[in-house]
Amino acid sequence: MRTISGLIAAAAIVCSAVAQAAANDTFPLRSDTFSNGATIPVANTYDEMGCTGNNVSPDLHWSGAPSATKSFALTVFDPDARKGSGWWHWVVYGISPSRTSIGAGEKNIGTEGVTSFGTAGYGGPCPPPGDTPHHYIFTLYALDDSVTGSLDGPHLLDAIKGHVLAKAVLVGRFGR
Questions:
Q1: CATH 3.90.280.10 is the classification of domain 2-174
Q2: Pick from 175, 176, 140, 173: which is nearest to 40 by CA?
Q3: Is the pTM of this model over 0.85?
Q4: What is the pLDDT of residues 4-19, one digit of tens each?
Q5: CB of 161 within 8 A of CB of 16?
């Protein structure tokens, strides 16, 4: 039940950010690292707080973004963390509109905002031991403008309101 309420809370956050985009304004987001709904490999998990991964971001690739895209923003959010209030694992914006992929572990893809770990950059999954596997929602937003400033996840979502042309979503899971 907690997972369902966490997913509902995450959906509400995402919906508020994409209020201007119609439900059918989507494009595919894929990874060779894991399939949609599948387990994220240990190599992509966090490397501190009792987790023993390599903290390497997975590869991502997409196609079919709107031709009017001026930039992309990417978030990775775990709606199951902190009893459903969530955890930001990656916040990146200012991604070039000419990109159609991000390589595994690739750096300098855009401006990285502060995550819930308190640092900028990718922070892989690391749920508490014994929790039901958490969901990690990778959302790529195609924007009609560029975003600037120093933004964390919630502030990025506020900044892109009214600027989302379409979005792509990929969900991974991880538990320990």
A1: yes
A2: 173
A3: yes
A4: 444 444 444 444 444 4
A5: yes
